[in-house]
């Protein structure tokens, strides 16, 4: 990556939002990604996936307002190409969702970053994810928090995600096959809950299993289009904010959509 282009892009992003210089922000946000492209000799070039991952950050995430340095660093580290369907690795860092089989998708990088940022993580949380899918979102969370619990209703997807998560070396992720619209009562309460499928309404079970002061991030709407709801639990009060419109596959379950 050309350092000038990178710096220009960061300057564009940070000029209004931070007093830090672009290069300071970059080194804090992506400590494990060197700025300079070092080519030792003509046969030894940079990993093309690492280059693509860095471009994903500088061209998709930063210009669209992703600011949380933990999230940016995590997405710089997780090898998204190891979570997509075999044969689609070269599309892994494109600015769009990809099919992962069974009519399901791995979400667009930007929506993963946005939802993770909206969880307002500090690092010591226990997080419940509904909709393991490829396992990519769980891996991004595992980079940041203490423990991730993730539920997937399609057994083959859960098993495939388990292989990818183990191969990537994450030991703080526990997967379960089942109906995530009911949450995971035995492991509750959770500091944060993220639902990566679109629900007709917020499942009561998830509200109950959220810790006091915790955040629940969930797309709610009809089967075509939803609003990304950010819900904060304050005792018996649930405060709601809408972050953006979005489009997810359906949350199918007892407190979601019925199976067609
Ligand atoms: N987070 C995933 C990732 O990083 O690849 C993407 C999830 S995909 C957009 C939504 C997933 O939710 C699908 O894999 C789908 O099977 C799953 N799902 C739908 N309803 C569910 C339910 N009630 N419980 C658990 N998983 C569910």
Rg, Cα atoms, Å = 18 Å
SSE string = HHHHEEHEHEHEEHEEE
**CATH superfamily annotation of the largest domain:** Vaccinia Virus protein VP39
Q: End-to-end distance, in Å?
A: 47 Å
| Low-confidence spans | 1-40
- Judging from the principal axes of the Cα atoms, what is the shape? globular
Provide the domain count: 2
Q: What's the story with the biggest beta sheet? A: 7 strands, mixed
Q: How many E-type strands?
A: 9
What is the CATH architecture annotation of the largest domain? 3-Layer(aba) Sandwich
Beta-strand percentage range: 15-25%
Put simply, the count of helices is: 8
- In the CATH scheme, what's the topology name of the largest domain? Rossmann fold
Q: Based on helices, strands and strand pairing, what is the structural class? A: alpha/beta
Strands across the major sheet, in which order? 5-4-3-6-7-8-9
Roughly what is the average pLDDT, rounded to an integer?
A: 87
CATH class of the largest domain: Alpha Beta
Ligands (ions, cofactors included)? S-adenosylmethionine
């Amino acid at each position: 990556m050309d350092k000038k282009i990178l710096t220009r892009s960061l300057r564009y992003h940070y000029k209004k939002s931070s007093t830090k210089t672009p290069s300071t922000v970059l080194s804090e946000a992506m400590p494990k990604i060197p700025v300079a492209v070092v080519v030792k000799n003509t046969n030894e070039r940079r990993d093309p996936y690492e280059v693509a991952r860095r471009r994903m950050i500088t061209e998709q995430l930063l210009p669209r307002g992703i600011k949380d340095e933990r999230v940016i660093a995590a997405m710089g580290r997780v090898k998204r190409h190891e979570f997509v369907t075999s044969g689609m690795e070269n599309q892994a860092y494109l600015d769009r969702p990809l099919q992962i089989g069974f009519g399901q998708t791995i979400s667009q990088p930007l929506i993963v970053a946005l939802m993770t940022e909206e969880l307002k993580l500090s690092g010591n949380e226990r997080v419940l994810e509904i909709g393991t899918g490829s396992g990519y979102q769980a891996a991004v969370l595992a980079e940041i928090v203490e423990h991730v619990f993730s539920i997937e209703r399609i057994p083959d997807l859960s098993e495939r995600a388990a292989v990818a998560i183990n191969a990537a070396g994450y030991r703080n992720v526990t997967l379960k096959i089942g109906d995530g619209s009911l949450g995971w009562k035995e492991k509750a309460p959770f500091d944060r809950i993220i639902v990566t499928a679109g629900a007709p309404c917020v499942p009561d079970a998830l509200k109950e299993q959220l810790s006091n002061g915790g955040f629940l991030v969930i797309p709610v709407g009809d089967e075509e289009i939803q609003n990304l709801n950010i819900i904060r639990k304050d005792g018996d009060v649930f405060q709601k904010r809408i972050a953006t419109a979005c489009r997810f596959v359906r949350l199918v379950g007892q407190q979601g959509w019925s199976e067609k």
